[in-house]
Amino acid sequence: MDTTIVKVIEENIDESIMAKAGAIIKAGGLVAFPTETVYGLGGDALNPDSSRKIYAAKGRPSDNPLIVHIARWEAVDKIVADIPEAARLLADKYWPGPLTMIMRKSEEVPYETTGGLDTVAVRMPVHKTALAFIEAAGGYIAAPSANISGRPSPTTAKYVIEDMSGRIDMIIDGGDAGIGLESTIVDLTGDIPMILRPGFITYEMLVEVLGEVAIDPTILSADCKDRPKAPGMRYRHYAPKGNLKIVTGDRDRVIEYINVNSKSDSSKGLKTGIIGTDENIDRYVADSIKSVGSREDEDLIAHRLYTILREFDDEGIESIYSESFEDGGLGQAIMNRLLKAAGHQIIELYEEKRV
Ligand code: TXA
Ligand code: MG
User: Is the CB of 303 under 6 A from ligand 1?
Assistant: First the structure.
């Protein structure tokens, strides 16, 4: 399949390109598009064949449901069976934006889109190109992240092209995704709203609107015996090709541990990489050393994380050590993705063993 690649500037959207992209979706085709979180791989959410094609293009298990993207609040009426009050409150405050809400689905939404579930994930992105594309396509775009299953979500068109060229009809290049991590997912179908995936809209921001909010206990812990409630969080995900380990604890011991172990891996003939922060970056020794930014700037860390993981893949890095990050606020999303990328390999170095 020939994939058309077009550049669209968010501040000056070319409506004729939007019309073409919309026509592709209405004809059952697939278009990758920019959002404020990561790039999406879009198809018509109300057409079961489109959803099947999305799973095929990504190489994704078809029991892993897709998020339905809308461009206006009124669109929820058609796809949601009963709209909880919490959804109205959250939409008022955080839509359009990087927040996905799980609600009971209506009969209009095919099971192919929801991976067989009676619930549907809905999100209204804030990216202007995404909104124009959704409108042009009829208002309901099913879209997972536009990566091959198991690779980091693409934060720039270059990586969408790498993963999706030849597999889909069109790629809309809108430059860098601002946030760089996928949306927060909150399940509104239970008694208490529950975060299934942490993101830019933090626990604290949800509590501000809803009062009580629960967190799926599997999000930050590998020890937890329960299965994650978002099917997609069960699969190994965001995985770089190299073996990634996270090192946490006292600063000097972390740096020493990383250097000693990188050196040892290097002497075994492995290509080594380190993910550090501006505060420590000058103290490392390895084949490839990358800073995600200052520890003070979590927005930048979120923005850079997936790109760094992809760059290590491009460089053929086989052994990677990463510093760890605070896990409050946006740090919760950063640590959640990093832990998943590392297959939960974490080395703890504290002067006194924590209890
Ligand atoms: O930021 C984002 O959310 C991006 C952009 C493109 O909008 N999309 C994205 O989609 O990250 P995806 O498919 O990579 O991740 C969707 C997650 C999966 O973990 C999936 O299992 C979960 O949402 N999900 C979707 N529908 C669900 C449902 N009805 N119940 C529970 N989890 C659901
Ligand atoms: Mg994904």
Answer: no
